[in-house]
Design goal:
heterodimer; A: mainly alpha; 3 domains; two-stranded antiparallel sheet; two-stranded antiparallel ribbon; 6% strand; elongated; B: alpha+beta; Arc Repressor Mutant, subunit A; 3-stranded antiparallel β-sheet; 4 helices; 12% strand
Chain lengths: 374, 112
C-alpha cells in the first residue's frame, strides 16, 4: 500500500474512532483502503502514471478524510429523544432568540404585557434550555451551523418586525405599549393608572399646601406620614418598596423585606413618577428629616409635571387602543420593534459559542500512536 | 441528479443486476454522474445506511488475492424500495416532460 493511502487511512480512522464503535470503524476503514488500492491500480494502468500519482488522484476522487468521516457520522447521527438534529438546531436557535427578546422587553418595561413575573423567569430558563437543545442538535447532526445561526437571526428579525407590530399597540416614550392579545385587560389597567395619577395629583397638591403652612411636625396631617394611609388613599403600588429607594437618613430603620419603617418620617413627592401599563404606579418617596421634607415639598411642581406627563402618555395609549380596535396595525412605528430588533444580534454570539463547542466535540480526533497500524 | 436522496435509488439500481463490491458500485454511479457533488468516499455511508435499513445485505469477500472486499447484494425489500423510487422518478419525468412539451409547442406556434 502506498504511503499516502496509509496516511489517509490513519486520518480517516482518527476522525471516526471517538464517535463510532470499533467494529464499525474497522469496516469503514477497510473498505476505504480496499477502494483506494483498487482505484490506484486502475488509474495507474489506465493513465500510465506512477503509483504515487495514481494514489493521489484516487484520494482526490475519494474525498478528504474529514468530509468522508463527517458523511459517515451524519448517517449514524444520534437522534436525541427521537427528534431530528436539524429540528433541534432550528427550533432551539429560534426559541432562544425569541425568548431572549421577550425577556429584554420584560426588563425594558413591557413586563406583564408578556406574562406574569413567574412566567418571565420560567421564560429565562426555557431560553437556556433552548440554547442547550441547539448545541445538542449541532453535536448530534455532526454539521457546522454558522450560516444557520445567521439565517435564524434574520428570520427572527423579520418575525419580530411583523409579530411585534401586530401584538404591541402603540408605544410611548418610556417604551411601553399595550398587548393586542390582552387589549381589554390592558386598557382597564391604563384607565386605573389614569385615575391613580389623578389621585396622586390631588395628594401632592394637598401635601404641598400642608407642608407650606406647617410650623412643626405636629401640623402635618397623618396621611403624609403613614405610608399605608397614603397607599390606600392614592392607590399606589407597593409603597414601602418605593420608599426604600429614597431616604436621606440611613440606618435609622430596617425594612426587613416590606416592613413598615418606624416614625418619625414623612412622605414626600417623587420627581420621577413610574407608571406601568399593568396597573402599577410609583410616585412617592420618604424623608426622615422634617426640614428636608419641607424643602422637598416646596419642589412639588416637578412631581406635578411628571404626573401630568405620565397622564399624557397613558392617554396616548388609550387613543392607540381605540385605533387598534378599529383595525389599525402599528407597522412602521419603530418604538414598537426597534429595541427588540437591536437585541437579536447581541444574542447571536451565544449561539456561535454553543455551535463552536458542539463542533469541537463532534470533530474531535483520536491521535494516539496505537491507532497508526495501517 | 437533482436530489441527493436519490443516491439510494442509484445504489439499489446498480445492485439489481447482481452483487457488487463497493468500488464497483461507486464506479457505476460515478459513470451516471448521479453522485452530484458527492465524492466517491461519501457514497459508502449511503450503502451502509441501506444495509442498516435492511434493504441490502453485505458480506466480506476474502479470496480476492488482495485486500478483502465487502460485497453488497440487494434483497426483496430493497427491490420493492427500488420499484417505489422508479415509480416516483417516472412520475417526475412525465410531469416535467409534459410541461416542457407545452413550452416547446408554444414556442413553435406563438400567438399572433
Amino acid at each position: 500500500m502506498c504511503e499516502v493511502i496509509a496516511w489517509y487511512v490513519v486520518e480517516l480512522r482518527s476522525r471516526l474512532a471517538p464517535h463510532l464503535p470499533a467494529a464499525q470503524v474497522e469496516t469503514i476503514v477497510t473498505e476505504a483502503r480496499s477502494h483506494l488500492n483498487e482505484s490506484t491500480a486502475n488509474l495507474a494502468s489506465s493513465l500510465q502514471i506512477s503509483q504515487d500519482e495514481a494514489a493521489a488522484a484516487a484520494i482526490d476522487a475519494f474525498g478528504q478524510p474529514e468530509a468522508v468521516a463527517m458523511t459517515h457520522l451524519r448517517q449514524h447521527a444520534w437522534r436525541p429523544l427521537g427528534i431530528k438534529p436539524l429540528w433541534l438546531v432550528w427550533g432551539g436557535a429560534s426559541l432562544s432568540i425569541l425568548l431572549w427578546v421577550m425577556e429584554f422587553e420584560w426588563m425594558r418595561g413591557y413586563f406583564d404585557n408578556f406574562g406574569e413575573s413567574w412566567q418571565n423567569v420560567f421564560g429565562g430558563f426555557c431560553a437556556l434550555a433552548a440554547v442547550i437543545a441547539f448545541g445538542v442538535g449541532c453535536y448530534a447532526g455532526r454539521q457546522r451551523h454558522r450560516m444557520t445561526i445567521l439565517a435564524v437571526g434574520a428570520a427572527v428579525e423579520v418575525a419580530i418586525f411583523f409579530g411585534f407590530s401586530f401584538i404591541i399597540v402603540g408605544s410611548t416614550d418610556n417604551g411601553q405599549g399595550l398587548s393586542r392579545i390582552h387589549l381589554s385587560r390592558d386598557v382597564e389597567n391604563v384607565r386605573k393608572d389614569v385615575s391613580t395619577l389623578d389621585r396622586l395629583d390631588a395628594y401632592v397638591r394637598e401635601g404641598a399646601a400642608a407642608f407650606a403652612g406647617a410650623k412643626s411636625v405636629g401640623d402635618i396631617p397623618f396621611k403624609f406620614r403613614d405610608p399605608s394611609i397614603a397607599q390606600r388613599e392614592v392607590g399606589l403600588y407597593n409603597l414601602p418598596l418605593q420608599l426604600a429607594g429614597r431616604l436621606t437618613v440611613k440606618g435609622n430603620y430596617s425594612f426587613g423585606g416590606f416592613g413598615r419603617p418606624p416614625l418619625p418620617y414623612f412622605i414626600i413627592p417623587s420627581e420621577s413618577v413610574i407608571v406601568m401599563v399593568d396597573g402599577r404606579t410609583y410616585g412617592l418617596s420618604a424623608e426622615a428629616d422634617f426640614s428636608h421634607a419641607v424643602l422637598d415639598w416646596r419642589k412639588s411642581a416637578k412631581a406635578l409635571g411628571a404626573i401630568a406627563k405620565q397622564k399624557q402618555q397613558m392617554n396616548i395609549l388609550l387613543e392607540s387602543a381605540a385605533q387598534a380596535r378599529s383595525g389599525r396595525l402599528f407597522f412602521f412605528n419603530r418604538r414598537v420593534y426597534s429595541g427588540a430588533i437591536l437585541m437579536v444580534p447581541l444574542f447571536l454570539p451565544v449561539l456561535v459559542i454553543a455551535e463552536a463547542i458542539a463542533s469541537a466535540l463532534f470533530r474531535r480526533r483520536r491521535t494516539w500512536p496505537g491507532l497508526v497500524r495501517a | 441528479m437533482a436530489f441527493r436522496s436519490d443516491i439510494n435509488a442509484l445504489v439499489l439500481g446498480a445492485l439489481q443486476a447482481g452483487p457488487l463490491h463497493g468500488y464497483e458500485i461507486v464506479r457505476r454511479i460515478r459513470e451516471t454522474g448521479g453522485a452530484g457533488k458527492l465524492s466517491e468516499g461519501q457514497v459508502y455511508p449511503y450503502l451502509h445506511k441501506l444495509e442498516a435499513d435492511g434493504l441490502v445485505s453485505a458480506e466480506w469477500q476474502t479470496d480476492t488475492g488482495g485486500a478483502p472486499r465487502r460485497v453488497y447484494q440487494v434483497n426483496e425489500a430493497g427491490l420493492k424500495e427500488l420499484q417505489k423510487h422508479r415509480e416516483q422518478w417516472n412520475k417526475f419525468v412525465s410531469g416535467v416532460g409534459s410541461i416542457l412539451a407545452v413550452s416547446d409547442s408554444k414556442k413553435e406556434a406563438p400567438n399572433v
